[in-house]
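Onboarding guide, step 5: your first structure request.
Type a short instruction followed by the sequence, for example:

Predict the 3D structure of this protein.
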Amino acid sequence: MEINKISSLTSNENSSDLTVSILSGVVIIEEGKVLLTKDNKDDFWKLPGGKINDSENLIQAAKREALEETGKRVKILNKSPVFYTINKENFIAILIHYFAQFIDNKKLNPIDKKVVVAKMFSLKDLPTDLGINVLPVLYKSGILTN
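The system replies with C-alpha cells like these:
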C-alpha cells in the first residue's frame, strides 16, 4: 500500500520536515474487558500496535503486532478500522485500530521483550494511566458510551 511508504514530507520550502508515522494495531474486547499493554519505553497502558514493515499491509501489521505484544494470534473482525490522529509540531501519527479476537487459547505472554505486560481490563474499571488514544477509540467505536 502506498500509505505505508510515507516517512517524511516537506510542506513547503521554508518549513522544516514533517514526519508522518502510520501505525496499525488491534482492539480486543472479550467478556466486558479490553486488552491493554505496557512497554518499557512508555509508562502508560495502550492498545497493542506499532509500525508497519515494508512488506506488510495494515491488517498484516496489526496481526503481527498483536502476536508480538500478546503471544497470541488474532483474527481481524472489521475491514473498516477506527482512526486516531496525533498532531504535534513537525510530527503526525495516524493510528489505525482493527477490532480483533484471539484465535488460540494460549496464555497472554508477550514475545516482544519491550512489552512488559499484556492484560485484560474491565471496561468499567480502566486504569487511569492510559495512552492518549485509548478512550477516544473506545468511545468512537461505541464500546464505551457516556
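Each response can be followed by summary notes, for example: Residues 1-10 have pLDDT under 50 and may be disordered.
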